[in-house]
């Protein structure tokens, strides 16, 4: 009797899950695009501070390259992270300029 209860419960839950996953019509995901995104509040403040930090002396090309000892055995780590941060912040700056220009 106890085994049947769990079996019925499993079938019922599975059927409910499957019914919830059925698609009605044509549902496709579409990218929002940077032109449709605006950033404000705490996230906007943090991004602004990040932009400012990337312009400090610590992230200028003369300061980015570390020796093997300075990198702590992770050669290229600071360089790679700096390049990634610069590319990310530049992409967001371009997007915010395009959004504010429209």
Structure description:
By secondary structure, the chain is mostly helical. Helix content is 62%, strand content 0%. It has four helices and no strands. It has helices at residues 2-21, 41-54, 61-64, 77-101. It is elongated, with a radius of gyration of 25 Å.
Topology (elements, then pairings):
Layout: H1 2-21, H2 41-54, H3 61-64, H4 77-101
Helix pairs in contact: 2-4
Name the helix and strand elements from N-terminus to C-terminus, one letter apiece. Answer: HHHH
Q: Work out the number of β strands.
A: 0
Helix segment tally: 4
Tell me the strand percentage band. Answer: under 5%
Which stretches are poorly predicted, pLDDT < 50 over at least 5 residues? Answer: none
**Structural class determined from secondary elements:** mainly alpha
Q: What characteristics describe this protein?
A:
102 residues; mainly alpha; 0% strand
Give a quick precis of the structure:
This protein is an all-alpha fold. The chain is built from four helices and no strands.
């Amino acid at each position: 009797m106890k085994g049947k209860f769990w079996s019925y419960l499993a079938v019922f839950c599975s059927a409910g899950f499957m019914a919830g996953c059925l698609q009605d019509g044509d549902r496709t995901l579409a990218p929002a695009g940077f032109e449709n995104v605006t950033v404000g509040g705490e996230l906007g403040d943090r991004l602004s501070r990040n932009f400012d930090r990337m312009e400090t002396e610590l992230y200028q090309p003369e300061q980015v390259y570390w020796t093997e000892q300075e990198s702590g055995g992770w050669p290229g780590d600071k360089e790679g992270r700096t390049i990634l941060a610069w590319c990310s912040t530049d992409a967001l700056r371009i997007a915010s300029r395009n959004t504010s220009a429209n």
